[in-house]
Amino acid sequence: MATVKKAGHTSIILQFPEGLKRNAIDVAGDIDAQLKDVHVQISGEPCFGACDLPSNPDGLIVNFGHYPIPNLAHDGEVLFIPARSNKDPIPIVRKVLPELKGRVGVVSTPQYIHRVPDIVDLLSDNDITPFVSKGDDRIFKEGQVLGCNTSAARAIAKDIDIILFIGAGDFHPLALALGTNKDIVIADPDMDEIRGIRDLKDRVLRQRHAVISQAKDAEVFGVILSTKPGQRREDLARDIVKDLRKAGKKAYIVEMENTSPQILDSFSATAWVSTACPRLAIDDHLAYNKPIITPPELDIILGKREWEDYIFDEIV
């Protein structure tokens, strides 16, 4: 509240990721009760991260659940309020200690990144050598990984034997496995579970091989260009169009904010290359009737990269 009062904002947009939207009305009510002269509204659009902000150039955007992306400029002032988990990760890390040895890279997401120093101390006390890196300019905290950026892990990959991921879900560990080619151990405080990612990695690679094979024979490509500032890779999209046309394909950029099977099926493209969030091609491919590939996967089709050199698409 002090930030809003000090800046003199009269308009606030509250933005929540899907898991926190159930709290949105209560939070808006609290702000309304304390700031009578401020207009408060809630963004109902999906929020995929700090790369995906609404526009409020004359007011304030409050983004819950994420840290900022340092190298990303915003349209107006943004207040980021990361969602820290109330689960203590130390017990599950203690359980995973027997599976760790040698040099271990430590990474996490905003829910647990504040506990990385404690985890590093625990590993060191148990004769394990921890490594933590800041990553590139898209990364806010040491050891932080995004679904579209594993630079904090890639920076230390040559120095480590294994990566310890503290957090929930499988997409970030999958990105780590594909981005570093290292074994990943997941310590999940939410599920109180220790698991690996090798089987999922192999299954996803088989799926991606099939999708690339489908797209290889396509003659008309749509190149998805996101309107979201943190996902907008316009130069890359233009280069892709040039490469496809040079290879004798028809290719056109299609700009959109969000994608759906209905939107893509409206076009005559027989395959798509996504320069938006990498999760679009990996997570949601079964929902689409036409193959969606990533820029590195297109390189395989065009003969610029071998399948054995497969890499995960990242926004860096």
Report on the structure:
With 316 residues, the protein is of the alpha/beta class. The chain has three domains: 71 residues, Diphthamide synthesis DPH1/DPH2 domain 1 (Rossmann fold, 3-Layer(aba) Sandwich), CATH 3.40.50.11840; 107 residues, Diphthamide synthesis DPH1/DPH2 domain 2 (Rossmann fold, 3-Layer(aba) Sandwich); 105 residues, 3-Layer(aba) Sandwich (Rossmann fold), CATH 3.40.50. 31% of the residues lie in helices and 20% in strands. The protein contains eleven helices and 13 strands. A five-stranded mixed beta sheet has the order 6-5-7-8-9, sandwiched between helices. β10, α8 and β11 form a beta-alpha-beta unit. α7 packs across α11. The radius of gyration is 21 Å and the shape is flat. The two termini are 34 Å apart. The model has no long low-confidence stretch (mean pLDDT 93).
In the CATH hierarchy, the architecture of the largest domain is: 3-Layer(aba) Sandwich
N-to-C SSE string, H for helix and E for strand: HEHEEEHEHEHEHEEHEHEHEHEH
How many distinct domains?
A: 3
Computed over alpha carbons, the radius of gyration is: 21 Å
Counting DSSP H or I runs of 4 or more residues, the number of helices is: 11
State the fourth-level CATH superfamily of the largest domain: Diphthamide synthesis DPH1/DPH2 domain 2
Q: For the record, what CATH class of the largest domain applies?
A: Alpha Beta
The helix content is 25-40%
